[in-house]
């Protein structure tokens, strides 16, 4: 009986696994190894050579998908020009498999080892008047242009930052209280950044963060006992900037507040204890990382652990705040000498 049950289980598991692998491999199923690419040029009386084959333009060329770049030679009456079309993951591979990732992530691995996940675009235009000889398909071009975007960050640049620590995760240990944990919203930050050398800067920022339960601003009625956690802190960090990303680490000084309140609206039950507020002051560290969307706005995450409590008593006590912050950055440059 027991062996039979094991066999049935293994048979069912194997069937489900095979079905998941087959159905989840989106790029493998939805794309073909060979596909047509329309190639055009603004050069008159031109033709192209791909490998050992020649075509008069405009041409519809059947190409095999491959991870290797496509070399095209444009031939006119007066000149021959080499172009390289970069191989790029296609949209079904990048986005289609996301639908199945939760249920059958192995399908993504199947596509990842299959040449059919690549393509050269559906249309290729060879612009004889342009000095650029490398052509990227739409998917590849979007990521190349976006992540290749550089925001100048040379020595002498000063930035004023104004931020919104929108999502805040608290872990507090108020004196003589159980550990307090909560996730909430809203806060405010302001600071200065100074680039002391290219791509490196120091940042001095002040923060206020709360665990207010509503992610939106509006009139909200609260009744009965209510716990509120908040934190005021200052950080000094060393940071490294690379294109759209920056990473930083440094020291922090924080004042963490746990506040037990009582609101008498709607005739609530009497409180189990008297309202009380407890404050602590601590020294710790800060780690942060940001992604810059454009010249003004960034989104990042802050991890601020507090390790040494200095008030109301001196002791080692771990607390932390994790925040997701939206930042607006205003830039001021040092005048040229």
Task: Please give the share of residues in helix.
Answer: 10-25%
User: What separation lies between the terminal Cα atoms?
Assistant: 88 Å
Rg computed from alpha carbons, rounded to a whole number of angstroms: 30 Å
What does the overall shape look like? elongated
Strand order of the largest sheet: 11-12-13-14-15-16-17-18
Structure at a glance:
By secondary structure, this protein is mainly beta. The chain is 15% helix and 53% strand.
Q: What would the keywords be for this entry?
A:
337 residues; mainly beta; Porin; 2 domains; 18 strands; 15% helix
What does this structure look like?
The structure is a single chain. This protein has 337 residues and is mainly beta. 15% of the residues lie in helices and 53% in strands. The protein is built from five helices and 18 strands. The protein has helices spanning 2-24, 26-30, 91-94, 106-112, 138-147, and strands spanning 34-41, 47-50, 53-56, 59-64, 70-75, 80-85, 88-89, 118-119, 123-126, 134-135, 158-172, 180-197, 200-212, 224-242, 245-263, 276-292, 297-311, 315-332. The chain starts with a helix and ends in a 5-residue tail after the last strand.
């Amino acid at each position: 009986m027991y062996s039979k049950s094991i066999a049935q289980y293994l048979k069912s598991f194997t069937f489900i696994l095979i079905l998941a692998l087959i159905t989840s491999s989106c790029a493998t199923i939805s794309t073909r190894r060979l596909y047509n690419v329309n190639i055009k040029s603004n050069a008159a009386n031109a033709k192209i050579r791909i490998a050992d084959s020649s075509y008069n333009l405009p041409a519809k060329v059947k190409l095999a998908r491959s991870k290797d770049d496509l070399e095209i030679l444009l031939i006119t009456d007066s000149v021959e020009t080499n172009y390289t079309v970069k191989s790029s993951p296609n949209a079904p591979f990048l986005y289609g498999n996301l639908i199945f990732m939760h249920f059958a992530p192995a399908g993504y691995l199947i596509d990842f080892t299959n040449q059919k996940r690549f393509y050269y675009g559906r249309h290729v235009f060879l612009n004889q008047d342009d000095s650029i000889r490398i052509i990227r398909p739409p998917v590849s071009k979007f990521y190349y242009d976006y992540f290749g975007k550089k925001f100048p960050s040379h020595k002498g640049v000063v930035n004023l930052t104004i931020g919104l620590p929108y999502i805040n995760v608290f872990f507090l240990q108020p004196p003589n209280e159980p550990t307090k944990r909560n996730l909430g919203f809203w806060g405010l930050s302001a600071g200065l950044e100074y680039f002391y050398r290219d791509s490196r800067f120091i940042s001095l920022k002040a923060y206020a963060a709360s665990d207010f339960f509503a992610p939106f601003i509006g009139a909200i009625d609260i009744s009965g006992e209510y716990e509120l956690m908040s934190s005021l802190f200052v950080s000094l960090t060393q940071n490294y900037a690379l294109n759209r990303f920056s990473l930083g680490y440094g020291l922090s000084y924080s004042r963490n507040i746990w506040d037990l309140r009582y609101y008498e609206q709607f005739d609530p039950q009497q409180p189990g204890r008297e309202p009380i507020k407890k404050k602590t002051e601590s020294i710790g560290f800060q780690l942060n990382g940001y992604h810059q969307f454009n010249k003004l706005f960034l989104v990042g995450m802050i991890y601020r652990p507090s390790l040494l409590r200095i008030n109301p008593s001196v002791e080692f006590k771990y607390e932390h705040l994790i925040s997701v912050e939206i930042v607006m950055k205003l830039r001021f440059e040092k005048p040229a000498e």
